[in-house]
User: Fold this.
Amino acid sequence: MLLIINRLTYQQKTSMMKRLHIYVSGIVQGVFFRQSTLTKAKEFGIYGWVKNLRDGGVEIVCEGDEESLKKMAIWCKKGPDGAFVSGADVQWEDFKNEFKKFQIIY
Assistant:
């Protein structure tokens, strides 16, 4: 009986999931920002992608539970050693269940 109470339906689980879109600016290319983001995403259990932008920034789209995404947003405002983050525009979006893993895209 306890197992039945603790089980969540697929709809309940997905309603707890969120999507985050982050644009990071500053000295964030050539400092392993993308690779470090990939490592953090795996640590936090979130899925999506990260890529460099032509303007020198980094763009991240990721999905997961709200608490894990908050951790990612906080981390992005600092970045890895060697990075200087001058701004992180964080936008919350509706969960789309679009990703199966986190990856660096080009």
In short: The first strand starts at residue 17 and ends at 27. The first helix runs from residue 2 to 6.
